[in-house]
Amino acid sequence: MFVSFRITQLYETGAAVYVYFSMIYDKIPMDKVVDMYEDIEHKSREACFQYGGSISHHHGVGKLRKRFMENTVTPLNRDLLKGIKGAVDPKNIFAANNTIYEAASRAATSRPTART
Length: 116
Known about the structure:
Strand order of the largest sheet: 1-2
Order of helices and strands: EEHHH
Helix content: 25-40%
Shape: globular
Radius of gyration: 18 Å
């Protein structure tokens, strides 16, 4: 396995560290390669969280990494972000299904009517 790192930004609270890895998989059954990659990525992210890191900075989260968001933001922060997404993009057009917020977008379009 080959692993490389680079620091792209420095902040008062830390740094943006990109991690690249590659592996030789010619001796691994092809139906196991993706599982092995995801296992390595998952364990790497868990180590990152263990030491106070997060999964993204200015690139967003995306479809592949949204499952890690619960480890990155507090419940209050998550609810705030879901509310903003539901208010500004109620039909989930922008970055459709790239975030954990699509449930909020669906809920925003089915708000209860005002009581009379």
